[in-house]
């Protein structure tokens, strides 16, 4: 029986791999048409200021609405688009949509920054700065309202060319942010070299903050490092009031995570921005204490 079980395990695993490969192959096949037909959608997640007690920014996150497969998350198709040579058109669509949504919010009187996630391939293709410039111009969005988030791994292989493109974006007035800081990379030298103003601490740090003293010490260390370098540090993945309090105690001034809001469609933003109430998190804490 053990042998039969083993075999069926292997078969199940093989089928799982098969279907995973089948899905990736299928997504690769469908991606060009999806781009052409604009089967993508942007959602926006609040970034909050602890001192300001309000939503200061919105991170734009792309979704693929596949007619048969439903919503496909970016972790499944960004690397695919990179491999298929389609990341530049996809990022151009993202830039266009997100800057127009941001401009509409400003026209409606909402003072928030918008973050866009950038692909290293776009930077390597050499057209990121001009593409950002034309998206801003077409949308009528001031450059200083835009934050470009670049994943840490990108910074590591940043060659001189990439550095100068980043410098161009900075000179244009855009704000540069290091995303997923601390996720699997250990070189810190680029932090001193590149023109970044924001450091986004990976959510793994936040997840560990309540685990033990070491987890808390690491978070304090990342906050201290960022602040000493003159950067604004954003904690990602804040899910509980306990995490909020510990981060606050350690001087963290900017946070993002499900506690403050899940990503929502652009249509819902006026409502989300208007209804946001910092006091409701204190209420949650009091409710916790009552139990
Ligand atoms: P990211 O830039 O680090 O974005 C944050 C991710 O964490 C988002 O996942 C968000 O939904 C999720 N998240 C936010 N708060 C919480 C929380 O409290 N707990 C947990 N567990 N997760 C939380 P999402 O939307 O699936 O995006 C995944 C990644 O895909 C992003 O990570 C980013 O690297 C990439 N991505 C998303 N949109 C774009 C895009 O337009 N262009 C590019 N190049 N990459 C994108
Ligand atoms: Mg990001
Ligand atoms: Mg990222
Ligand atoms: Mg991140």
Automatic annotation (TrEMBL):
Included stretch of the parent chain: 611 to 901 of 910
EAL domain location is 24-277
Protein name according to UniProt = PAS domain S-box-containing protein/diguanylate cyclase (GGDEF) domain-containing protein
């Amino acid at each position: 029986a053990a042998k039969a079980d083993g075999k069926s395990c292997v078969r199940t695993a093989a089928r799982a791999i098969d279907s995973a490969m089948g899905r990736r192959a299928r997504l690769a096949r469908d991606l060009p048409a999806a781009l052409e037909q604009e089967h993508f959608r942007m959602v926006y997640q609040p970034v909050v200021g602890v001192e300001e007690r309000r939503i200061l920014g919105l991170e734009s996150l792309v979704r693929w609405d596949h007619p048969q497969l439903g919503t496909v998350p970016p972790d499944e198709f960004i690397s695919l688009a990179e491999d298929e040579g389609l990341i530049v058109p996809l990022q151009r669509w993202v830039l266009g949509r997100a800057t127009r949504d941001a401009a509409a919010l400003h026209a409606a009187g909402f003072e928030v920054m918008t973050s866009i996630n950038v692909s290293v391939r776009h930077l390597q293709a050499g057209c990121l700065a001009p593409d950002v410039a034309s998206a801003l111009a077409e949308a009528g969005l001031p450059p200083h309202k835009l934050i470009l988030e670049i994943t840490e791994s990108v910074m590591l292989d940043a060659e001189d060319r990439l550095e100068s493109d980043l410098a161009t974006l900075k000179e244009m007035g855009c704000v540069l942010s290091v995303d997923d800081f601390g996720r699997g990379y250990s070189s810190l030298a680029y932090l001193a070299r590149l023109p970044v103003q924001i450091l986004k601490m990976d959510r793994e740090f936040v997840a560990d903050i309540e685990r033990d003293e070491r987890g808390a010490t690491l978070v304090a260390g990342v906050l201290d490092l960022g602040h000493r370098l003159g950067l604004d540090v954003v904690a990602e993945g804040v899910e509980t009031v306990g995490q909020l309090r510990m981060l606050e105690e350690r001087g963290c001034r900017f946070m993002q995570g499900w506690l403050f809001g899940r990503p929502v469609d652009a249509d819902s933003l006026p409502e989300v921005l208007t209804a946001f109430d910092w006091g409701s998190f204190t209420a949650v804490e009091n409710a916790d204490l009552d139990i």
